[in-house]
Amino acid sequence: MARLGTGRGHFSSVRSRLVLLTVSLLAPALLAMGFLLISADRESRSQLYQQLVTTARALSGAVDRQAAVGISVAETLATDQALINGDWAAFHARAQRVAQRRPGWIVVSDIRGQQILNTLQPYGQPLPAVPRANELTSALLAGRSKISDLREGKVSGKPVITVATPIQVRGQPYVLSYVVESSSFTSVFRQQRVPETWIATVIDNNRRVVARSRLNEKFTGKQTTSDMARNLDHSTEGVSKSTSLDGVPTMVAYTRSPQTGWTLVVAVPRAELARTVNRSVLTGAGVFVVLLGMGLTLSLVYARRINGEMRQLILDADAIGRAESLPPADPDTLEEIAAVHAALRTASQELKIREERQGVMINELNHRVKNTLATVQALARQTFSKTKDAPVEVFTDRLIALSAAHDLLTRTGWREADMGQLVQASLGAYVERVDCSGPAVALAPHTAVGLSMVFHELATNSAKYGALSAPTGRVSVTWRLDDDGGVLSFTWRDQGGPPVTPPAAQGFGTRLIESSIRREQKGSAHFDFRPDGLVFDATLPLPATVRWSNSF
């Protein structure tokens, strides 16, 4: 059975065409998906950047609220009557009670920075003088409360933030300060639930780290990175690439508080940002790959079914070649293939009818040919009735050999005759004394009729003068076929007969043989009259097509 797509291009089968169709249908979707993924990537990054800015704003607001609490504490204590009256001991005791409920402590100093009392120390202990920054002094002189930048606590020895407010004690200017450790601002990060992989940082006006969500103690007081400093020089809020203090490439969102002037920075490692963004992109890509795989799988499934039905059509065609009837098509067969099957089935039925008609006509033709030969035989007998019997018998034997060839061709519908069967049919009564060997060769009707007369004449000549005239003599007939050239060669060899001498003149049989081989068959013939027996060689081309055929 022929295989589908053998020796043809890569896209000549139904399966490859269906796969190609699926891919071509999905190609625009692939392009659209690509644009969507690019848009989704941009949208995801934009949303994430906006989320970073929103988080920075929320944290900045929380820091401002915590600073406002410190201002509220300082301004509330500034109204204490003991403080106003200059009763330092009484105010120290009350300030200690207030400080016990809060994370910071209370300090009162004069305008020059000399501390008068500090709730971290017992009242009356010597206290240091702390010089103030110019901007803090200016604010105090103007009567405003002020939050300091990061500074080193002289008594605590830790990084602190001071909320200072000016007060009057007995007509003299003083400063009341509520002091907290800078690490207290890390509680804002916990309250706002900053992710562990993110880095939230509070930076003061001097661009030093006030508090940090990760490794706070290590980096408190450090100057911010140079790229972050450049960002702050250009804008008060934004999103840009940066590198953290511990050397991690990050994407940062920052915003500056208008109340404190501090900047809140939220940084996300770029690797995590890429994973977060790529997750959504990969999800979309994965969905498309699944759809593509489903499409290709379905196309292969349908292609397998179609290929199976196409192979069935090939089997149907082979069955028609063997003159077999086709059954009805499967009800589940595809409509187009079912139509082809129906046409083949109709053709097979029509061929059966034509074959039956052909058989009837061939039988009738054979019957009429036999009648004609019988008539010719009768005429020959009447014609030679007044002569010797030999010419009449020879003529009759030749007609019988011709009739045998006709019978052999009739059995095959006058399409072809087998070489071996033709030799046996042409030898008549001498067939038992002839050894035949050679491959199966299908002879056209015209060639079969001509060779039947040749073998008959060779047998007749051998019966008169050669091996068949002796009781122990035999004849061997061998033939071979040149497949490339389509040339048939055969040899007739007499063995065990009387000694042979070349004839003085050609007889009628010799002329008949040479005429049949050379003129009718366009071949060559050679007689070799050897003393031990005749050897006859012949070579003739076989026609490429059947010469006699019936179209009905």
Chart the SSEs and their pairings:
Blueprint: H1 14-77, H2 81-85, H3 88-100, E1 105-110, E2 115-118, H4 134-141, E3 146-147, E4 151-152, E5 159-169, E6 172-181, H5 186-191, E7 199-203, E8 209-212, H6 216-219, H7 226-234, E9 237-243, E10 249-256, E11 263-269, H8 270-321, H9 335-383, H10 389-411, E12 417-418, H11 419-427, E13 434-437, E14 442-443, H12 445-465, E15 474-482, E16 487-495, H13 508-520, E17 524-530, E18 533-541
Parallel strand pairs: 13-15
Antiparallel strand pairs: 1-2, 1-6, 3-5, 4-5, 5-6, 7-8, 7-11, 9-10, 10-11, 12-14, 15-16, 16-18, 17-18
Tell me briefly what this model is:
The chain has helices spanning 14-77, 81-85, 88-100, 134-141, 186-191, 216-219, 226-234, 270-321, 335-383, 389-411, 419-427, 445-465, 508-520, and strands at residues 105-110, 115-118, 146-147, 151-152, 159-169, 172-181, 199-203, 209-212, 237-243, 249-256, 263-269, 417-418, 434-437, 442-443, 474-482, 487-495, 524-530, 533-541. The protein is α+β, with helices and mostly antiparallel strands. The strands form 4 sheets. Strands 1, 2, 3, 4, 5 and 6 form a 6-stranded antiparallel beta sheet that branches. The chain has a 5-stranded antiparallel beta sheet with strand order 8-7-11-10-9, with helices on both faces. Strands 13-15-16-18-17 form a 5-stranded mixed beta sheet, with helices on one face.
